[in-house]
Amino acid sequence: MENILEKATKIKEKIDKYNYYYYVKNESLVSDIEYDKLLKELEEIEKKHPEIKDELSPTRQVGSSLSDTKFQKVEHKKPMLSLSNTYNIKDVEDFHQRIDKILGKLKEDESKKITDYALELKLDGVSISVHYKNGKLVKGVTRGDGTVGEDVTENIMEIKSIPKYLKENIDIEARGEIVLPLSEFKKLNQIRYDKGEDLFANPRNAASGTLRQLDSKIVAERNLDCYFYFLADCDKLGIEKHSESMEFLEKVGLKTTGVCDLCSSIEELEDRIRYWENNRGVLDYETDGLVIKVNMVELWDKLGATTKSPRWAISYKFPAKQVTTTLKNITWQVGRTGKVTPVAELEEVEVSGSKVKRASLHNFDEIIRKDVKIGDRVFIEKAAEIIPQVVKVVKEARTGEEKEIMPPSVCPECGTELGREEGLIDLRCPNEKCPAKVRGQIEYFVSRDAMNINGLGKKIVEKFIEIGKIKDVSDIYDLHLYKDELKSLEKMGAKSVENLLKSIEDSKKREYPKSLYSLGIPHVGKFLASLLAKESKNIDKLAQMSIEDLLEIDGVGKKVAESVYGVFRNKKFLERLEKLKNYGVNFKIKEVEDTAEFFNEEFKDKTFLATGKLKHFTREGIKEYIESLGGKNLSGVSKKLDYLIVGEKAGSKLKKAEELKTVKILTESEFLEMTEK
């Protein structure tokens, strides 16, 4: 019993510490999923040993953001409860069955059982209660500990999406979530970065820290936003359903997310959950899950609540985007350009649904700026849902045993002294024959998006670099001279060698955009390779273009133009290109129509429309790109539209596409991934 009590006490102390930093200091020491697991563990202990549970247990309390002196305390007329969280569909099914069972006991009339659920986005921000008297904004109160909050009226007056006057002269209390849009979050962190200040780990911390500023001018500068999700005492206004209360809020001038999906079965709930898991990337704010509510308001009181959470609602959380783990070591990795990158070796952890043991730290300057040490607890997230990266260090978790990270002075692959190019912060290996650089260039050259040479695996490449048969990507086309040596390699039989040599030969016929991309010109990816190929028709013409000529191509900026111009004046690059041309590699477009087959057949006769601000394309640029791939552009959303590509601040077109439910909604990154298939 002593061990159980001791364990419970330690968990409580951890949770209290995490709550203090999260709600009062606006800092996260652990990820949401780790916090929820800890709370769940305490709940299980208290369930088995109820004698150790007390009124002050974190399982009975809402996390508190109350400070000692900053703002006046205000008691809520009705408690602002937190929601029970779940990370799996099974718990949603149990929630549905539990409600059905409770209502079945309350009413004999089966027709009065639950009819539908309202499913909404769960925003990751700061909860707020806003009061209007005769249509005028009179008070704004934070959730606080759920019973008592803090008066932040002066600060919310600076948030444009919270109107000072409603469209009707009524007395209401509306509850919502104050968030910092992702676009504003990036701007704010860039400003802090330029000033040498610590960056916010996520938009939620930034929003919380902003709302609790003593100077309301700072609030005005940071462009917070607010979305309302609850109308208190809506039944007194004759409103019977939660979905109707959302319509009412919009009618009087309060902003909602516009997402209130009605579902009458567990199957419909699961379908919408899957939809938002795949499409939340189109939003300009962080959403960490979905809220599922019984839609009939009259049933809420009948279903009741625990001391902490209502029984008529549940939160389904998406797989964690951010988690904390321990940084065990640093590995220095050499890329195809010679750039030496620090890679964090981590205790394995799950991020966005996949296991992660390594994460990017970009460069040594980043290590210094973030003050990263070996042994630190660090926050990890997936950049653009793909590449894991270290976001920040949890300095409060340091024990004093952490070790400083020192940059290498020589290349970890070939031992050459490292240097930095003028004006750049990256460490680089200058040795053109560095095995890591050659290996990286070959891997890039033979990849599916480039020359698509199958069978040239890492071990084969390493072996031939080691024995001096491959010193440059052009040497790949001489591998037929070493057929017997290839056959002697492990797992390389006669058939495998024949297939490899055939794939090498077939690669000579690759389309010009792909062979251009395979050259690895700095800043020229698949999209720009396609544009440059379409404009130049052949590589000789591209080589003759001036910087001014290149800048005239829509989508080509100064950095790209200078890079392309520069490589065609690089002796070693020209020597490689000449060798490849002599081997018969294709560097010209035979017919203009060939560009429509650059990627795949998936675009043929499909219709597309782009809306919102895009990062990688101008509006005309993406239209041309779609047409070059065989797709068609539409000017509006209709049943004829197959794909809507959504950028930042997408408006009515996105809403209409969601209502149609026949249009596939893509983020810009998802669209680019589609081109890679």
UniProtKB/TrEMBL annotation:
Which Gene Ontology CC terms are recorded?
Answer: cytosol
EC number(s) from the headed UniProt entry: 6.5.1.2
Task: Give the required cofactors.
Answer: Mg(2+); Mn(2+)
Show the GO MF annotations.
Answer: DNA binding; DNA ligase (NAD+) activity; metal ion binding
Could you say which enzyme class this protein belongs to? ligase
Q: Which residues form the BRCT domain?
A: 598-677
Is-annotated flag, keyword Transmembrane? no
Q: Where does NAD(+) bind?
A: 32-36, 82-83, 120, 143, 177, 293, 317
Q: Does the keyword NAD apply?
A: yes
One BP annotation, GO: DNA replication
Q: Which reaction does it catalyse?
A: NAD(+) + (deoxyribonucleotide)n-3'-hydroxyl + 5'-phospho-(deoxyribonucleotide)m = (deoxyribonucleotide)n+m + AMP + beta-nicotinamide D-nucleotide
Identify which residues the record assigns to the active site: 122 (n6-amp-lysine intermediate)
Instruction: State the UniProt keywords alphabetically.
Output: DNA damage, DNA repair, DNA replication, Ligase, Magnesium, Manganese, Metal-binding, NAD, Zinc
Q: Which residues are noted in the entry as Zn(2+)-binding?
A: 411, 414, 429, 434
Which family does the record assign?
A: Belongs to the NAD-dependent DNA ligase family. LigA subfamily.
Q: Any idea what job this protein has?
A: DNA ligase that catalyzes the formation of phosphodiester linkages between 5'-phosphoryl and 3'-hydroxyl groups in double-stranded DNA using NAD as a coenzyme and as the energy source for the reaction. It is essential for DNA replication and repair of damaged DNA.
Question: Mind telling me which PANTHER family this protein's record contains?
Answer: CHROMOSOME TRANSMISSION FIDELITY FACTOR 18 (PTHR23389), DNA LIGASE (PTHR23389:SF9)
**NCBIfam families this protein is in?**
dnlj, PRK07956.1
Query: What is the name listed in the Swiss-Prot or TrEMBL entry for this protein?
Result: DNA ligase
Task: Supply the source organism for this entry.
Answer: Ilyobacter polytropus (strain ATCC 51220 / DSM 2926 / LMG 16218 / CuHBu1)
